[in-house]
Every structure is written in C-alpha cells, then in structure tokens.
Amino acid sequence: MSQLPEPPVQGGPVAQLVRWLQSTILFRGLADEEVKLLLRRCGRMEAGMFEVVCAENEPGETLFYILDGEVYLTRLVGEEEEFLALLGKGSCFGEAGLLGESMRTATIRARQKTLLLTMEASLLHLIPKDVSAKLMRNIALASNEKLKMANMIIGRLYEQLRALQPKTEDWKESEQRFIEKLGENPSA
After folding, report:
1. How far apart, in whole angstroms, are the C-alpha atoms of residue 83 and residue 165?
2. Which of 42, 84, 116, 166 is found 20 to 30 A from 185 (Cα to Cα)?
3. Can you give the residue ranges of every domain in the chain?
4. According to DSSP H, which parts of the chain are helical?
C-alpha cells in the first residue's frame, strides 16, 4: 500500500523559496500559487565559472533570473570584452528576450557556479492573463531600475567629459574662428 505524501511544512524549502522570490522585484505582488505556477513553467540552467550564459549580438527569447551565484555583464568595445556590471542573486537579465525576438545587448558570463531560472517568451501565453500582466509590470519595474542606473552612469560620464573640454569662453572663441573660416571658404 502506497503512503500519502506528507503535507508541505509551513517553513519548508518550497515555501521559503516562494517567500524569498516574492521579496524580489520580478515576483513582487504575486500570490504563493502564482509563484509556484511560474516555477513549474520555467526552466532551470546551471552555468559553470566563466561560462557564457548568453552572448552579445545573438538572438534571444529568454529572460534569466539568478537563483544563486553571480554573473558578469560585459560588452565588446572594439575587440575587447569590457566589464560593465556584476549581477547577483535576485537579479534578472534578458528582459527584452521575454517580450519577443531580440538581439542580446551584452554578454553574460558566470562569475562562479550559478543557478538560473529561465523564462521563455512563450511563457506569457501559457499562464493566466492576470499573472502575465503582473509579471510584465514587474519586468517593466526591473527595466526602469536599470534605466535609472544607466542614467546615473551617463550623467557621471557627461560630467567627466565636460571637465575634459576647454572652458566655455575658449570653446566659443574656437567656434567663432571656425565660422569665420567657413565664411571665407564655404566649400571647406
């Protein structure tokens, strides 16, 4: 005679995982059963140290969510792979891939052994519309946070660029000479 499975423990591993996921931006506002549904529909991926998870300029239709570990976010600058950021547990990347076919804008490489949850673009059609809407809202919130960070970086770079430029009066004098030169020879 087969035994009935034991009822889930209130603080068991699944309940703990669900609570932790609900504390992160991607799963915020989702009920326990909605998180469990997503967990059943998502894939899992393990990446070893320095293994490429996805590469810049390759097509992608998958969002990745870091369950454990860390990844490097890099971009090619000329021929060199340049470090941009380190993403850790609770971070997601590849949001545009979930919205449909797109090209990857960066390379993601595991810093250490990393466990990832994968969400394919087709997932949005396989889950109830209200859950899909909540997930899309959270993806927009996560993307907004990344946009804020990018704007801060652009602001700092702009300040550094301004510090390297000649003083405004020098620039205006240079501009005036350039305009006068064009006036003497408009085809130059």
Report:
1. 26
2. 166
3. 13-138
4. 13-22, 32-41, 95-98, 123-126, 129-164, 168-184
11-15: long-range contacts, CB 8 A cutoff, minimum separation 24? none
Q: Taking the CB of residue 42, how many other CB atoms lie within 10 A of it?
A: 17
Report strand pairing: 80-88 vs 43-47: unpaired
Tokens of 21: 């996921």
Task: Kindly state which CATH superfamily the domain 13-138 is placed in.
Answer: Jelly Rolls (2.60.120.10)
Residue 86 pairs in a beta bridge with 72
Amino acid, single-letter form, for residue 28: R
Q: What pTM value is reported for the model?
A: 0.75
Joined tokens for residue 51: 């293994």
Residue type, 120: E
57-112 tens-digit pLDDT: 999 999 999 999 999 999 998 888 889 889 999 999 998 888 776 899 999 999 99
